[in-house]
């Protein structure tokens, strides 16, 4: 009956980007893609306007983390006219990219499109190279953090990689089920420490790829620290505004909480408000 407790570790960098290349003078309000048409034009053929609904302009799922367990360590969730019919002929598209700590989106270009990138989470090193000009091929690149945006001008070769690798001196891992700690080891800087505060019943997995292995990194474990240490830790967290996602339950609902815990039906840690002094946020 392991409850799954996940501490927000800046493990993945997450960006959204969109590319643009459009018809300068459309002849109608929209040309929603008709996926069933056999006609091949510049884009999909247009669906009859009277059959178009709001859902043709709608896409959901960009909040979903995509698996990065592949060779590049990156996963691109594309939102193009292939998946969002209302985008047809508008010349814009969007995507979500998830990057594991070591991931690289290798240099590539989109000949007809410019691209703007927004970092939603983590740190990313991104840049582009100019065409062969009198100054040679110039590199314009920058380390980006959450909230930053960066633009790649039309057709130029560009790249991104997750710059979180080797950037953390310590990580507290509270995941109490068996998991792969390889990406976390990549995140540690030399002499960094991974502290296991959760105690999985099954063995942890670690593939010692070179840079997750070198640099005198260490893995340590800890159990509950006793009342005094716990109080100190909570005071420290409060002072520095370090908070956790919890589900607050009152004392009279404790049996219900135990049942839900047994069923694995709790996303975060339950906190019991014994004195009824707290109100749920
Ligand atoms: C990308 O993520 C999706 C959703 O997690 C997954 O189904 C797909 O296999 C992933 N693709 C790659 C190449 O890893």
TrEMBL record:
<dbReference type="InterPro" id="IPR006045">
    <property type="entry name" value="Cupin_1"/>
</dbReference>
<feature type="disulfide bond">
    <location>
        <begin position="31"/>
        <end position="46"/>
    </location>
</feature>
<keyword id="KW-0479">Metal-binding</keyword>
<feature type="binding site">
    <location>
        <position position="115"/>
    </location>
    <ligand>
        <name>oxalate</name>
    </ligand>
</feature>
<feature type="domain" description="Cupin type-1">
    <location>
        <begin position="60"/>
        <end position="176"/>
    </location>
</feature>
<dbReference type="GO" id="GO:0048046">
    <property type="term" value="C:apoplast"/>
</dbReference>
<dbReference type="GO" id="GO:0030145">
    <property type="term" value="F:manganese ion binding"/>
</dbReference>
<protein>
    <recommendedName>
        <fullName>Germin-like protein</fullName>
    </recommendedName>
</protein>
<keyword id="KW-0964">Secreted</keyword>
<feature type="binding site">
    <location>
        <position position="158"/>
    </location>
    <ligand>
        <name>Mn(2+)</name>
    </ligand>
</feature>
<keyword id="KW-1015">Disulfide bond</keyword>
<comment type="similarity">
    <text>Belongs to the germin family.</text>
</comment>
<feature type="binding site">
    <location>
        <position position="110"/>
    </location>
    <ligand>
        <name>Mn(2+)</name>
    </ligand>
</feature>
<dbReference type="InterPro" id="IPR036291">
    <property type="entry name" value="NAD(P)-bd_dom_sf"/>
</dbReference>
<dbReference type="InterPro" id="IPR011051">
    <property type="entry name" value="RmlC_Cupin_sf"/>
</dbReference>
<keyword id="KW-0732">Signal</keyword>
<feature type="binding site">
    <location>
        <position position="108"/>
    </location>
    <ligand>
        <name>Mn(2+)</name>
    </ligand>
</feature>
<keyword id="KW-0464">Manganese</keyword>
<dbReference type="InterPro" id="IPR001929">
    <property type="entry name" value="Germin"/>
</dbReference>
<dbReference type="Pfam" id="PF00190">
    <property type="entry name" value="Cupin_1"/>
</dbReference>
<feature type="binding site">
    <location>
        <position position="115"/>
    </location>
    <ligand>
        <name>Mn(2+)</name>
    </ligand>
</feature>
<feature type="binding site">
    <location>
        <position position="105"/>
    </location>
    <ligand>
        <name>oxalate</name>
    </ligand>
</feature>
<feature type="signal peptide">
    <location>
        <begin position="1"/>
        <end position="21"/>
    </location>
</feature>
<feature type="binding site">
    <location>
        <position position="110"/>
    </location>
    <ligand>
        <name>oxalate</name>
    </ligand>
</feature>
<keyword id="KW-0052">Apoplast</keyword>
<dbReference type="InterPro" id="IPR014710">
    <property type="entry name" value="RmlC-like_jellyroll"/>
</dbReference>
């Amino acid at each position: 009956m392991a409850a799954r407790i996940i501490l927000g570790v800046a493990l993945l960098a997450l960006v959204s980007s969109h590319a643009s290349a459009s018809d300068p003078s459309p002849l109608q309000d929209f040309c929603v893609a008709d996926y069933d048409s056999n006609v091949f034009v510049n884009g999909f053929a247009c669906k009859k306007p009277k059959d178009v609904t709001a859902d043709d302009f709608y896409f959901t799922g960009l909040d979903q983390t995509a698996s990065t367990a592949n060779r590049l360590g990156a996963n691109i969730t594309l939102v193009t006219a292939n998946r969002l019919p209302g985008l047809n002929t508008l010349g814009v598209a969007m995507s979500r990219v998830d990057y594991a700590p070591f991931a690289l989106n290798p240099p590539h270009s989109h000949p007809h499109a410019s691209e703007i990138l927004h970092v939603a989470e983590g740190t990313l090193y991104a840049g582009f190279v100019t065409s062969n000009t009198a100054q040679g091929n110039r590199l314009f690149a920058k380390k980006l953090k959450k909230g930053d945006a960066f633009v790649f001008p039309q057709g130029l070769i560009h790249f991104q990689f997750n710059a979180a690798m080797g950037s953390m001196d310590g990580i507290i891992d509270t995941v109490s089920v068996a998991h792969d700690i390889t990406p976390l080891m990549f995140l540690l800087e030399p002499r960094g420490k991974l502290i296991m505060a959760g105690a999985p019943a099954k063995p942890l997995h670690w593939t010692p790829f070179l840079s997750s292995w070198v640099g005198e990194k260490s893995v340590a474990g800890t159990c509950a620290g006793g009342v005094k240490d716990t109080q100190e830790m909570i005071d420290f967290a409060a002072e520095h505004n370090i908070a956790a996602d919890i589900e607050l339950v009152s004392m009279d609902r404790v049996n219900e909480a135990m049942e839900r815990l047994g069923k694995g039906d709790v996303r975060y840690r339950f906190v019991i408000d014994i004195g009824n002094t707290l109100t749920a946020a």
